[in-house]
Design brief:
14% helix; Glutaredoxin
Length: 437
Amino acid sequence: MVSPRRAPVGLAVLATLMVAGCGRRDEHADKGSAAPPVVAPTPTPPPADAPPAPAAVEWYRAVVGSDLEEVPFFVSMPPPGTLGSCTIVNGDEHIPVECTWEDASTIVLEFRMFATRIRAERGPDGTLSGGWQMSRIAGPMLPARFAAIRIPRPDPTLRFPAAAATTPPAAVGDFSGTWKVQFTMLEAGKGMLTQTSDGVVTGTIIPRGIGDMRYLAGNARGNTLWLSTFDGQHAYVLRAELDPGRQALAGTWVFPQITRDRFTAHRVATLDTALVEKLHLRRGAKGVTIPQLDDPRYRGKPVIVDYFGTWCPACMDLTPFLVELYRRHHEAGLEIVSFALEGTTDDAYNRQQVEYFRKLYAIPWPIVVLPGEYTEAEDLLPRELEGTGGYPITIFLNRDHSIRGMHSGFFGPAAGEDHQLLKKRFEGYVEAMLASP
Protein backbone atom coordinates (compact mmCIF):
# COMPACT_ATOMS: atom_id res chain seq x y z
CA MET A 1 0.00 0.00 0.00
CA VAL A 2 1.30 3.45 -0.88
CA SER A 3 1.82 5.55 2.20
CA PRO A 4 0.52 9.12 1.90
CA ARG A 5 2.85 12.06 2.05
CA ARG A 6 2.34 15.78 1.91
CA ALA A 7 1.50 17.00 -1.60
CA PRO A 8 3.23 20.04 -3.11
CA VAL A 9 1.46 23.41 -2.92
CA GLY A 10 -1.27 23.62 -5.56
CA LEU A 11 -1.21 25.49 -8.86
CA ALA A 12 -3.18 28.40 -7.46
CA VAL A 13 -0.50 29.05 -4.85
CA LEU A 14 2.19 28.87 -7.53
CA ALA A 15 0.32 31.48 -9.57
CA THR A 16 0.34 33.78 -6.54
CA LEU A 17 4.09 33.32 -6.09
CA MET A 18 4.69 34.19 -9.72
CA VAL A 19 2.73 37.50 -9.80
CA ALA A 20 4.87 40.31 -11.15
CA GLY A 21 4.80 43.96 -9.99
CA CYS A 22 2.00 46.22 -11.18
CA GLY A 23 2.42 49.31 -13.36
CA ARG A 24 3.19 52.81 -12.11
CA ARG A 25 2.38 56.31 -13.33
CA ASP A 26 4.99 58.86 -14.49
CA GLU A 27 6.09 60.77 -11.37
CA HIS A 28 8.00 63.39 -13.42
CA ALA A 29 5.14 64.68 -15.58
CA ASP A 30 4.93 68.50 -15.57
CA LYS A 31 1.31 69.22 -14.76
CA GLY A 32 1.62 72.91 -15.61
CA SER A 33 2.64 72.67 -19.25
CA ALA A 34 1.84 70.61 -22.30
CA ALA A 35 4.25 67.83 -23.01
CA PRO A 36 6.13 68.06 -26.33
CA PRO A 37 5.01 65.58 -28.96
CA VAL A 38 6.89 62.31 -29.04
CA VAL A 39 8.06 61.16 -32.46
CA ALA A 40 8.71 57.45 -32.77
CA PRO A 41 11.96 56.64 -34.60
CA THR A 42 11.68 54.90 -37.94
CA PRO A 43 12.53 51.21 -37.38
CA THR A 44 15.57 49.91 -39.24
CA PRO A 45 14.67 46.84 -41.31
CA PRO A 46 16.80 43.75 -40.58
CA PRO A 47 19.36 42.76 -43.22
CA ALA A 48 18.19 40.27 -45.81
CA ASP A 49 20.48 37.54 -44.47
CA ALA A 50 19.55 38.07 -40.80
CA PRO A 51 18.49 34.91 -38.94
CA PRO A 52 14.75 34.63 -38.28
CA ALA A 53 13.45 35.95 -34.97
CA PRO A 54 13.04 33.24 -32.31
CA ALA A 55 9.59 31.72 -32.26
CA ALA A 56 7.30 32.85 -29.49
CA VAL A 57 6.88 30.37 -26.65
CA GLU A 58 4.85 30.12 -23.48
CA TRP A 59 6.38 28.62 -20.34
CA TYR A 60 4.59 26.27 -17.96
CA ARG A 61 5.31 24.55 -14.70
CA ALA A 62 3.90 21.08 -15.34
CA VAL A 63 3.34 17.97 -13.24
CA VAL A 64 2.61 14.32 -13.98
CA GLY A 65 1.41 11.74 -11.50
CA SER A 66 -1.12 11.72 -8.69
CA ASP A 67 -1.54 14.48 -6.13
CA LEU A 68 0.56 12.57 -3.60
CA GLU A 69 3.27 11.69 -6.14
CA GLU A 70 3.51 14.73 -8.43
CA VAL A 71 6.64 15.00 -10.58
CA PRO A 72 7.21 18.65 -11.57
CA PHE A 73 9.14 19.94 -14.58
CA PHE A 74 9.25 23.02 -16.81
CA VAL A 75 8.06 22.96 -20.41
CA SER A 76 7.78 25.57 -23.16
CA MET A 77 5.04 25.43 -25.80
CA PRO A 78 4.10 27.53 -28.82
CA PRO A 79 1.11 29.83 -28.27
CA PRO A 80 -2.28 28.16 -28.83
CA GLY A 81 -3.05 27.47 -32.46
CA THR A 82 0.49 28.22 -33.69
CA LEU A 83 3.24 25.98 -35.03
CA GLY A 84 6.43 25.23 -33.14
CA SER A 85 8.12 22.72 -30.88
CA CYS A 86 8.13 22.15 -27.16
CA THR A 87 11.09 21.92 -24.78
CA ILE A 88 11.25 20.16 -21.42
CA VAL A 89 13.72 21.55 -18.89
CA ASN A 90 15.32 19.63 -16.02
CA GLY A 91 18.15 21.71 -14.62
CA ASP A 92 20.76 22.01 -17.40
CA GLU A 93 18.92 19.52 -19.61
CA HIS A 94 16.75 20.79 -22.48
CA ILE A 95 14.78 18.09 -24.31
CA PRO A 96 13.15 19.05 -27.66
CA VAL A 97 9.72 17.48 -28.11
CA GLU A 98 7.41 17.31 -31.12
CA CYS A 99 4.13 19.00 -30.27
CA THR A 100 1.01 20.07 -32.16
CA TRP A 101 -2.01 22.18 -31.33
CA GLU A 102 -4.88 20.15 -32.78
CA ASP A 103 -7.06 23.22 -32.34
CA ALA A 104 -7.01 26.38 -30.21
CA SER A 105 -7.45 24.39 -27.00
CA THR A 106 -5.91 20.91 -27.46
CA ILE A 107 -2.18 20.20 -27.58
CA VAL A 108 -0.37 16.87 -28.04
CA LEU A 109 3.27 16.26 -27.12
CA GLU A 110 4.75 13.25 -28.90
CA PHE A 111 7.75 11.40 -27.46
CA ARG A 112 8.37 9.24 -30.51
CA MET A 113 11.42 7.52 -29.10
CA PHE A 114 9.36 6.13 -26.23
CA ALA A 115 6.03 5.87 -28.09
CA THR A 116 4.47 7.95 -25.29
CA ARG A 117 2.45 11.15 -25.44
CA ILE A 118 0.83 13.91 -23.42
CA ARG A 119 -2.57 15.20 -24.48
CA ALA A 120 -4.00 18.23 -22.70
CA GLU A 121 -6.86 20.71 -22.92
CA ARG A 122 -6.41 24.43 -22.28
CA GLY A 123 -8.90 25.97 -19.90
CA PRO A 124 -10.30 29.53 -19.92
CA ASP A 125 -7.69 30.54 -17.33
CA GLY A 126 -4.82 29.28 -19.49
CA THR A 127 -4.06 26.19 -17.43
CA LEU A 128 -3.62 22.80 -19.10
CA SER A 129 -5.02 19.49 -17.91
CA GLY A 130 -4.95 16.03 -19.41
CA GLY A 131 -3.02 12.77 -19.29
CA TRP A 132 0.39 11.25 -19.93
CA GLN A 133 0.07 7.97 -21.85
CA MET A 134 2.91 5.93 -20.44
CA SER A 135 5.16 3.38 -22.16
CA ARG A 136 3.86 0.01 -23.29
CA ILE A 137 6.71 -1.60 -21.36
CA ALA A 138 4.95 -0.73 -18.12
CA GLY A 139 1.91 -2.76 -19.20
CA PRO A 140 -1.74 -1.70 -19.53
CA MET A 141 -2.65 1.11 -17.16
CA LEU A 142 -4.63 4.33 -17.03
CA PRO A 143 -2.81 7.44 -18.26
CA ALA A 144 -1.08 9.38 -15.51
CA ARG A 145 -2.50 12.81 -14.73
CA PHE A 146 -0.90 15.84 -16.40
CA ALA A 147 -1.45 19.46 -15.39
CA ALA A 148 0.35 22.73 -16.15
CA ILE A 149 0.11 26.42 -15.28
CA ARG A 150 1.55 29.41 -17.15
CA ILE A 151 4.68 31.00 -15.69
CA PRO A 152 6.83 33.92 -16.88
CA ARG A 153 9.97 31.77 -17.16
CA PRO A 154 11.42 28.48 -15.88
CA ASP A 155 12.48 29.82 -12.46
CA PRO A 156 14.52 27.02 -10.83
CA THR A 157 13.69 28.35 -7.35
CA LEU A 158 10.04 27.43 -7.95
CA ARG A 159 10.32 23.92 -9.36
CA PHE A 160 8.92 22.80 -6.00
CA PRO A 161 6.83 25.74 -4.72
CA ALA A 162 6.20 23.80 -1.50
CA ALA A 163 9.89 24.33 -0.74
CA ALA A 164 9.62 28.08 -1.32
CA ALA A 165 6.60 28.24 0.99
CA THR A 166 8.26 26.55 3.98
CA THR A 167 11.30 28.24 5.46
CA PRO A 168 13.46 31.17 4.32
CA PRO A 169 16.51 30.43 2.18
CA ALA A 170 18.79 31.32 5.10
CA ALA A 171 17.66 28.13 6.82
CA VAL A 172 18.60 25.83 3.93
CA GLY A 173 20.77 22.85 4.84
CA ASP A 174 23.76 21.92 2.72
CA PHE A 175 22.98 18.99 0.39
CA SER A 176 25.91 19.51 -1.98
CA GLY A 177 28.72 17.01 -2.44
CA THR A 178 29.14 13.29 -3.00
CA TRP A 179 26.84 10.78 -1.30
CA LYS A 180 27.06 7.03 -0.83
CA VAL A 181 23.45 5.93 -1.34
CA GLN A 182 21.77 2.70 -0.28
CA PHE A 183 18.38 1.88 -1.79
CA THR A 184 16.14 -0.94 -0.62
CA MET A 185 15.51 -2.31 -4.14
CA LEU A 186 18.02 -0.50 -6.33
CA GLU A 187 20.87 -1.42 -3.98
CA ALA A 188 23.98 0.78 -3.69
CA GLY A 189 24.44 4.05 -5.55
CA LYS A 190 26.51 7.20 -5.92
CA GLY A 191 24.94 10.64 -5.65
CA MET A 192 26.49 13.91 -6.84
CA LEU A 193 24.66 17.13 -5.94
CA THR A 194 25.38 20.83 -6.45
CA GLN A 195 23.56 23.55 -4.52
CA THR A 196 23.30 27.32 -4.94
CA SER A 197 22.81 29.91 -2.21
CA ASP A 198 19.06 30.16 -2.94
CA GLY A 199 18.50 26.45 -2.35
CA VAL A 200 18.44 25.27 -5.99
CA VAL A 201 19.88 21.75 -6.18
CA THR A 202 20.92 19.82 -9.30
CA GLY A 203 22.81 16.61 -9.93
CA THR A 204 22.18 12.92 -10.38
CA ILE A 205 22.28 9.54 -8.64
CA ILE A 206 23.81 6.40 -10.17
CA PRO A 207 22.12 3.26 -8.78
CA ARG A 208 23.96 -0.03 -9.19
CA GLY A 209 23.96 -1.48 -12.69
CA ILE A 210 21.34 0.74 -14.37
CA GLY A 211 23.07 4.01 -15.28
CA ASP A 212 22.22 7.42 -13.89
CA MET A 213 18.84 8.89 -12.91
CA ARG A 214 19.19 11.67 -15.47
CA TYR A 215 19.29 15.40 -14.71
CA LEU A 216 17.71 15.77 -11.29
CA ALA A 217 16.67 19.30 -10.31
CA GLY A 218 14.82 20.74 -7.36
CA ASN A 219 14.85 22.77 -4.19
CA ALA A 220 16.04 22.56 -0.62
CA ARG A 221 14.48 24.30 2.35
CA GLY A 222 15.38 23.66 5.94
CA ASN A 223 16.52 20.05 6.15
CA THR A 224 14.23 18.86 3.33
CA LEU A 225 15.26 18.24 -0.28
CA TRP A 226 12.94 17.77 -3.29
CA LEU A 227 14.29 16.58 -6.67
CA SER A 228 12.59 15.52 -9.91
CA THR A 229 13.12 14.75 -13.58
CA PHE A 230 10.85 13.96 -16.55
CA ASP A 231 11.77 12.95 -20.10
CA GLY A 232 8.53 11.53 -21.54
CA GLN A 233 9.30 7.98 -20.42
CA HIS A 234 10.69 8.36 -16.91
CA ALA A 235 9.20 10.47 -14.14
CA TYR A 236 11.14 10.49 -10.88
CA VAL A 237 10.56 12.44 -7.69
CA LEU A 238 12.79 12.19 -4.65
CA ARG A 239 12.30 13.64 -1.19
CA ALA A 240 14.99 13.41 1.48
CA GLU A 241 15.59 14.69 5.00
CA LEU A 242 19.01 15.80 6.25
CA ASP A 243 19.92 14.57 9.72
CA PRO A 244 20.89 17.10 12.45
CA GLY A 245 24.57 16.32 11.91
CA ARG A 246 24.11 17.14 8.20
CA GLN A 247 26.12 14.09 7.13
CA ALA A 248 23.27 11.66 6.38
CA LEU A 249 20.03 11.57 4.35
CA ALA A 250 16.91 9.43 4.49
CA GLY A 251 14.22 9.58 1.86
CA THR A 252 12.01 8.06 -0.82
CA TRP A 253 12.35 7.73 -4.59
CA VAL A 254 9.05 7.41 -6.50
CA PHE A 255 8.17 6.57 -10.09
CA PRO A 256 4.40 7.32 -10.07
CA GLN A 257 2.16 4.32 -10.81
CA ILE A 258 5.27 2.13 -11.24
CA THR A 259 7.30 1.79 -8.05
CA ARG A 260 8.75 3.44 -4.96
CA ASP A 261 11.92 2.77 -3.03
CA ARG A 262 13.34 4.03 0.24
CA PHE A 263 16.97 5.08 0.56
CA THR A 264 19.59 6.39 2.96
CA ALA A 265 22.79 8.23 2.12
CA HIS A 266 26.00 9.31 3.83
CA ARG A 267 28.24 12.15 2.75
CA VAL A 268 31.70 11.05 1.54
CA ALA A 269 34.73 12.86 0.17
CA THR A 270 35.02 10.64 -2.92
CA LEU A 271 33.39 7.46 -4.18
CA ASP A 272 34.62 5.09 -6.88
CA THR A 273 31.95 4.03 -9.37
CA ALA A 274 33.11 0.43 -8.91
CA LEU A 275 30.52 0.49 -6.13
CA VAL A 276 27.69 0.53 -8.68
CA GLU A 277 29.06 -2.05 -11.11
CA LYS A 278 27.67 -5.56 -10.76
CA LEU A 279 27.91 -7.28 -14.16
CA HIS A 280 30.17 -10.35 -14.09
CA LEU A 281 30.58 -13.88 -15.46
CA ARG A 282 29.13 -16.87 -13.68
CA ARG A 283 31.63 -18.96 -11.76
CA GLY A 284 33.61 -21.13 -14.15
CA ALA A 285 32.63 -19.22 -17.31
CA LYS A 286 35.46 -18.11 -19.59
CA GLY A 287 33.46 -16.17 -22.17
CA VAL A 288 29.98 -15.51 -23.56
CA THR A 289 27.92 -17.54 -26.02
CA ILE A 290 26.50 -15.34 -28.79
CA PRO A 291 25.60 -17.36 -31.92
CA GLN A 292 25.62 -14.30 -34.19
CA LEU A 293 29.38 -13.95 -33.65
CA ASP A 294 29.91 -17.11 -35.74
CA ASP A 295 29.19 -14.96 -38.80
CA PRO A 296 32.36 -14.69 -40.96
CA ARG A 297 32.25 -10.88 -40.77
CA TYR A 298 33.24 -11.06 -37.08
CA ARG A 299 35.97 -13.71 -37.28
CA GLY A 300 39.31 -12.38 -36.09
CA LYS A 301 37.72 -8.97 -35.43
CA PRO A 302 37.40 -7.07 -32.16
CA VAL A 303 33.67 -6.70 -31.45
CA ILE A 304 31.53 -4.53 -29.19
CA VAL A 305 28.29 -6.34 -28.31
CA ASP A 306 25.55 -3.88 -27.35
CA TYR A 307 22.32 -5.00 -25.63
CA PHE A 308 19.96 -2.02 -25.55
CA GLY A 309 16.36 -0.81 -25.75
CA THR A 310 15.04 2.21 -27.63
CA TRP A 311 13.09 3.07 -24.45
CA CYS A 312 16.33 3.30 -22.42
CA PRO A 313 17.77 6.83 -21.86
CA ALA A 314 21.17 5.43 -20.82
CA CYS A 315 21.21 3.65 -24.20
CA MET A 316 20.52 6.97 -25.90
CA ASP A 317 23.53 8.43 -24.10
CA LEU A 318 25.77 5.52 -25.08
CA THR A 319 24.75 5.09 -28.73
CA PRO A 320 26.26 8.34 -30.11
CA PHE A 321 29.54 7.41 -28.42
CA LEU A 322 29.45 3.92 -29.96
CA VAL A 323 28.86 5.51 -33.37
CA GLU A 324 31.89 7.72 -32.78
CA LEU A 325 34.05 4.73 -31.80
CA TYR A 326 32.88 2.80 -34.85
CA ARG A 327 33.65 5.60 -37.29
CA ARG A 328 37.13 6.11 -35.80
CA HIS A 329 38.15 2.47 -35.58
CA HIS A 330 36.14 0.48 -38.13
CA GLU A 331 38.89 0.64 -40.76
CA ALA A 332 41.26 -0.90 -38.18
CA GLY A 333 38.85 -3.81 -37.78
CA LEU A 334 36.35 -2.80 -35.06
CA GLU A 335 32.87 -4.27 -35.44
CA ILE A 336 29.71 -3.65 -33.42
CA VAL A 337 26.53 -5.68 -33.20
CA SER A 338 23.45 -4.53 -31.28
CA PHE A 339 20.58 -6.54 -29.80
CA ALA A 340 17.37 -4.61 -29.16
CA LEU A 341 14.95 -5.69 -26.45
CA GLU A 342 11.78 -3.64 -26.88
CA GLY A 343 9.82 -5.37 -24.14
CA THR A 344 6.70 -6.29 -26.13
CA THR A 345 5.50 -9.22 -28.24
CA ASP A 346 4.28 -6.83 -30.97
CA ASP A 347 6.89 -7.47 -33.66
CA ALA A 348 5.71 -4.64 -35.94
CA TYR A 349 5.89 -2.15 -33.08
CA ASN A 350 9.34 -3.38 -32.02
CA ARG A 351 10.74 -3.04 -35.53
CA GLN A 352 9.17 0.39 -35.95
CA GLN A 353 10.87 1.67 -32.80
CA VAL A 354 14.23 0.14 -33.70
CA GLU A 355 14.16 1.60 -37.20
CA TYR A 356 13.40 5.06 -35.80
CA PHE A 357 16.29 4.67 -33.36
CA ARG A 358 18.64 3.52 -36.14
CA LYS A 359 17.85 6.53 -38.34
CA LEU A 360 18.01 9.01 -35.46
CA TYR A 361 21.56 8.00 -34.51
CA ALA A 362 22.71 6.95 -38.02
CA ILE A 363 23.73 3.48 -36.79
CA PRO A 364 25.75 1.70 -39.55
CA TRP A 365 26.07 -1.77 -37.96
CA PRO A 366 23.52 -4.63 -37.71
CA ILE A 367 20.73 -4.57 -35.10
CA VAL A 368 19.05 -7.83 -34.07
CA VAL A 369 15.54 -7.32 -32.62
CA LEU A 370 14.91 -9.74 -29.74
CA PRO A 371 11.33 -10.91 -29.12
CA GLY A 372 9.76 -11.10 -25.70
CA GLU A 373 8.46 -9.12 -22.75
CA TYR A 374 10.66 -6.90 -20.60
CA THR A 375 10.37 -9.44 -17.78
CA GLU A 376 12.02 -12.04 -20.05
CA ALA A 377 15.13 -9.94 -20.63
CA GLU A 378 17.47 -12.08 -18.56
CA ASP A 379 16.57 -15.19 -20.57
CA LEU A 380 17.54 -13.41 -23.80
CA LEU A 381 21.06 -12.52 -22.64
CA PRO A 382 24.14 -14.77 -22.77
CA ARG A 383 23.68 -17.43 -20.10
CA GLU A 384 27.18 -16.81 -18.73
CA LEU A 385 26.28 -13.33 -17.44
CA GLU A 386 25.23 -12.46 -13.90
CA GLY A 387 24.38 -9.11 -12.36
CA THR A 388 22.44 -7.86 -15.40
CA GLY A 389 20.46 -5.27 -13.50
CA GLY A 390 19.86 -2.76 -16.26
CA TYR A 391 20.50 -1.57 -19.81
CA PRO A 392 22.60 -1.02 -21.81
CA ILE A 393 24.83 -4.07 -21.41
CA THR A 394 28.09 -3.54 -23.27
CA ILE A 395 30.59 -6.36 -23.83
CA PHE A 396 34.03 -5.71 -25.34
CA LEU A 397 35.59 -8.70 -27.12
CA ASN A 398 39.17 -9.15 -28.32
CA ARG A 399 39.95 -10.50 -31.78
CA ASP A 400 39.70 -14.07 -30.45
CA HIS A 401 36.38 -13.03 -28.80
CA SER A 402 37.73 -13.39 -25.29
CA ILE A 403 36.33 -10.72 -22.97
CA ARG A 404 38.31 -7.50 -22.63
CA GLY A 405 35.69 -5.75 -20.48
CA MET A 406 31.97 -5.36 -19.86
CA HIS A 407 29.60 -2.91 -18.24
CA SER A 408 25.93 -2.75 -17.24
CA GLY A 409 24.27 0.64 -17.49
CA PHE A 410 25.97 3.80 -18.77
CA PHE A 411 26.83 7.08 -17.04
CA GLY A 412 25.42 9.83 -19.24
CA PRO A 413 26.33 13.55 -19.39
CA ALA A 414 24.37 14.18 -16.18
CA ALA A 415 27.10 12.22 -14.34
CA GLY A 416 29.74 14.83 -15.23
CA GLU A 417 33.26 13.59 -14.50
CA ASP A 418 32.13 9.97 -14.15
CA HIS A 419 30.67 10.19 -17.67
CA GLN A 420 34.03 11.28 -19.06
CA LEU A 421 35.97 8.64 -17.08
CA LEU A 422 33.71 5.84 -18.34
CA LYS A 423 34.16 6.99 -21.95
CA LYS A 424 37.93 6.90 -21.46
CA ARG A 425 37.67 3.39 -20.05
CA PHE A 426 35.67 2.25 -23.08
CA GLU A 427 38.23 3.84 -25.41
CA GLY A 428 40.96 1.97 -23.56
CA TYR A 429 39.11 -1.30 -24.10
CA VAL A 430 38.85 -0.61 -27.84
CA GLU A 431 42.53 0.25 -28.21
CA ALA A 432 43.51 -2.98 -26.39
CA MET A 433 41.04 -5.01 -28.48
CA LEU A 434 42.53 -3.66 -31.73
CA ALA A 435 46.03 -4.59 -30.51
CA SER A 436 45.00 -8.07 -29.40
CA PRO A 437 46.28 -11.13 -31.33
